[in-house]
Amino acid sequence: MGYKHSLHTFVHRTLVYRLIVIGLSLSLLIGMMALYIERDRVSVEAIHVAMERLSLFSERYDALLADPNNLEPDKLHQAALEFRTPGTQHRSGSFVVLGLYDIQGKLITGIFHDQKENSSAIKKKQMAMVPRIPKGEKDWYKVVRISGRPYLRTSLPLVNSSQQTVGVISGFYEFSPETIKAFRVRGLRAMVTSMLIVLLTTAIIYPVTLRLARRITRFSVQLLEANLDTLETLGSAIAQRDSDTNAHNYRVSIYATRIGEEVGLPPKTMRTLIKGSFLHDVGKIGIPDNILLKPGKLDDREFEIMKTHVQHGCDIIQRSEWLSDALEVIQSHHEKVTGAGYPEGLTGGGIPVTARIFAIADVFDALTSKRPYKEPWSFDEAMNILEEGRGSHFDSHLLDTFQRIARPLHDQFGGKEEVFRDELSAIITKYFHEGMDSLDY
Questions:
Q1: CA atoms within 13 Å, Cβ hemisphere of 21
Q2: 3-state percent breakdown (helix, strand, coil) of the chain, nearest 5
Q3: What are the residue boundaries of the structural domains of the chain, listed by start?
Q4: Pick from 193, 174, 167: which is nearest to 38 by CA?
Q5: Backbone torsions φ then ψ of 148, nearest 5 degrees
Q6: Does the structural domain 244-438 have CATH classification 1.10.468.10?
Q7: How many alpha carbons fall within 13 Å on the CB side of residue 144?
Q8: Between β-strands 165-175 and 93-102, what pairing exists: parallel, antiparallel or unpaired?
Q9: Is 283 in contact with 313 (CB distance < 8 Å)?
Q10: What is the per-residue pLDDT across 93-143, written as a single tens digit (0 to 9) for each?
Q11: TM segments (predicted)?
């Protein structure tokens, strides 16, 4: 059954596509999170080193901070130079700018590394600062970018051995190339590792999901086949009761489908048209035999009873959710564009396009087929009758469409009592089995 392959291919393709999209999206999201987390971890390590080094100043030069009222700028300047000498630098980075301020925020001394990149811009930022005693950890540091490069702006209280705050030490800490490289390498490594883990998990899940999807696919095909069997059984049962053959249902379904294709109906509407074509007269099961099988013309009372087959059909079909869309054909295929039809007297575009299409197919087949009470009309006679109904019974545009394709259809199917299973099977395969990739059938 080749049509199963179509649905399987669709499910397989959709599953692969969605797993790839979800896997890549999740891996990218988690990877980016890992990147930033790892970069933050490196940053925290570097910041910890910088802040720890800055706090060492108070311990190392405690003697110079003993008297808050007698801070000696020259000695503090020399201490700052010693503090920032290359021999005392850490591999995580070094201070480009260092400033010492008294308790009022007045600059005592400052040192600047003029040979460093962006030193002039950093010096301006340092000079523009208004140092104050940090009140909490959030005030101790801030990562800033200058010309695209990250720096750590720091501030810590200067505290002597008596635990007196005598001023503020502040500066710009330049991360070393090794630290910046670590930002990138460790972050990217964490990102790639996280992405690989997610993608590997997705790959492991795929065969399990595919196996479950195949089971659902088989069940869906079986369910569709059961529904189609119901469709054919119902339609054929009433057709045989009405005319001793179900060939009529096959012919009108083929005619209506060809008209629908010619006007470019979307697949979903085509499925509605096909269902409705096969079930259009299902309500005749509720019409007494003496009226349904009467060989002559019905009188007014009999015709009123015959018209109730529309409501009978609606009552039968509306119980099935899968067949419910066929109601628009069942209910409206006896409407006329001028409003002279039944049961609701709909006009023009108020009549569903599927019902307007089917009306042409149904009348044409009735005219060109043999009935107990009449012989089949010729093709030209039937087309003349349809033309007389243009704009009153039939939609003019749809009638023009049918006229373009009517002759080859009549030559192949018209008036023949053969049950055209192969042709209808091809239609069913095209619009139901192959149309299952929409999962709306």
A1: 6
A2: 65, 10, 25
A3: 2-184, 244-438
A4: 193
A5: 80, 0
A6: no
A7: 15
A8: antiparallel
A9: yes
A10: 777 788 888 888 888 888 877 656 666 777 777 666 666 666 655 557 777
A11: 15-37, 190-208
CB 61 within 8 A of CB 91: no
Tokens of 244: 């001793």
Give alpha helix (H) positions in 244-307: 247-263, 267-279, 289-292, 300-307
pLDDT tens figures, 244-275: 557 888 899 999 999 999 999 999 999 999 98
Contact between 81 and 111 (Cβ < 8 Å): yes
Rounded Cα distance between 339 and 361, Å, is: 19
134: amino acid identity, one letter: P
Kindly compute the dihedral angle of the four CA atoms of residues 298, 300, 305, 307, in this order, to the nearest 10 degrees.
90
For the question of whether the overall pTM of this predicted structure is more than 0.70, the answer is no
- Residue whose pair of structure tokens reads 């505290």 in the numeric block: 159
Q: Residue written as tokens 């085509």?
A: 270
CATH 3.30.450 given to domain 2-184: yes
Residue 383: exposure state from Cβ atoms within 10 A (0-12, 13-18, ≥19): buried
